[in-house]
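user: Kindly work through both lines:
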Amino acid sequence: GQLVESGGGSVQPGGSLRLSCSVSGFDSLAYYAIGWFRHAPGKEREGISCINSGDGSTYYTDSMKGRFTISRDNAKNTVYLQMNSLKPEDTAVYYCAALFLATCGMREYDYWGQGTQVTVSS
């Protein structure tokens, strides 16, 4: 299986981006929980959000609540991360990851994408 992130780019502070995580080579996205992470230079990787399969329940790191929204479209094999009110400190490489037949936080992720760069700067 393969995960491919897209939608990154450069945006001014206060702007918005929608990242996509497209999944291919899996039986069905419906079997996977999907998480979003980011990694900024000089910092540790940071969890952002996760969305379960089945009931589609969502989880957010406290600092991300209110500005970031995760959603999924199993028919399109895609998970999205809507990011609003972006700040310079949101600059990072953003990754999605897939967890097979498990719920968010149950164990380590099984598959990772290559990441997409998000740069927030005036």
Q: What stands out?
A: The first strand starts at residue 2 and ends at 6. The chain has a mean pLDDT of 95. The two ends are 37 Å apart (CA to CA). The CA atoms of residues 89 and 111 lie 26 Å apart.
